[in-house]
Amino acid sequence: MLKVSIYRYNPETDQEPYMQAVEVDTGGKDLMVLDVLELVKAQDPSMAFRRSCREGVCGSDGMNINGKNGLACIMSLSEALKGGDTLILRPLPGLPVIRDLVVDMGLFYKQYEKIKPFLINDTPAPAIERLQSPEEREKLDGLYECILCACCSTACPSFWWNPDRFIGPSGLLQSYRFLVDSRDTATAERLADLDDPFSVFRCHGIQNCVNVCPKGLNPTKAIGHIRNMLLRSAT
Amino acid sequence: MVTSVTNLGRSGLSDWLIQRVSAVVLLAYVIFLSYVLLACSPDYQEWKALFENTCMRIFSVAALLAIAMHAWIGLWSVSTDYLTERTLGGKATLLRLSFQAISAAVLFTYVVWGIQILWS
User: Fold this and answer.
1) Which of residues 56-75 of B touch A (CB under 8 A)?
2) How many domains does chain B fold into?
3) Could you give the CA distance from residue A8 to residue A102 in angstroms, rounded to a whole number?
4) What is the pTM (predicted TM-score) of this model?
5) Which sequence ranges are marked TM in the entry (chain B) (predicted)?
6) Class assignment of domain A2-103?
7) With contacts defined as CB-CB under 8 Å, which chain A residues touch B77?
8) Which stretches of chain A are assigned E, i.e. beta strand?
């Protein structure tokens, strides 16, 4: 039997959040954390969490697993427990809890919207498509793979303190994805929107984002590239 | 873009650059003074003569300004991280502005006092 400790909070019935101890029969298998959550839900249908693709593509089941943010669907029990005997599940830190492991992602998406996550190109559209060379396309590798699961931003203390002003690692990774895209012509406007003391420069490079990203991406590196672009354009 | 009127350089990039440049100045100053103190073991007259040298005074004032700017950017960041409505509620703005005003007054005093000591 696996011991599981889960953060529970139903604002309609609970005065305050509490940790619920549950025991789950995993059959001795090294299940994924999401599978364990499904077993918990079978015991207690009132348990709330988000899930969808169950293969690390949709980014729905980001949560804090034994102290580290990750996707429940692609994190195995052995990876989560690291030799321990209790699986501890909490919601992503820093965002308001709606219920149990479900958080309000509003602040996270607001920051994502700020970076204008779409191609801006004022030149006349070609007959078929805007072409890129293989080298230009290669620059988007390590950036386009972000699935907006919020594991990185909610592991970042700067985002905890200023979620309304600091764009956060996820948004900044996406921002650089459009800044470096050869088909985008709004580089100057994008950079002008970022040159304040909060949007980019609240990043102090502690790299929690790199440590937790379930897709193995490096937002700190992207933020460094944005700083260099700002430096080049302003000096 | 997030607007702010209390940060040093009015832009995130300028604050970031000042923070790095001032750190380099302070590092150079600490290394130089450490070398003088440890390798040369100056007596009072040599120490006094060193600080009466114009180049040393320029270096010392640069270090003094660097520490003031570096400290202001750091303290401003701390105040806008922790002394906010999000963490402290309605009184946060008054508390934050008071903290920033006291910090600025202390740093300004140190700069003026330091210059006075260097030229006394």
Assistant:
1) none
2) 1
3) 10
4) 0.90
5) 17-38, 58-78, 98-119
6) alpha beta
7) 197, 202
8) 2-8, 18-24, 62-65, 68-71, 86-90, 97-99, 102-103
Angle at A89 between CA A88 and CA A90, to 5 degrees: 125
Q: Distance between alpha carbon A57 and the CA centroid of its chain, in Å?
A: 12
Q: Give the domain extent around B26.
A: 12-118
Partner-chain contact B12 A193, CB within 8 Å: no
Distance CA A107, CA A92 (A): 13
Tell me if B23 is assigned to some domain: yes
In a domain, B52, yes or no: yes
Q: What is the pLDDT of residues A63-110, one digit of tens each?
A: 999 999 999 999 999 999 998 999 999 999 999 999 999 999 999 999
- Where do we find the tokens 């950017």? B73
B92 occurs within a structural domain: yes
Q: Do A199 and B2 touch (CB under 8 A)?
A: yes
- Specify the DSSP class assigned to residue A155: G
- Distance CA(A156)–CA(A161), nearest Å, equals 9
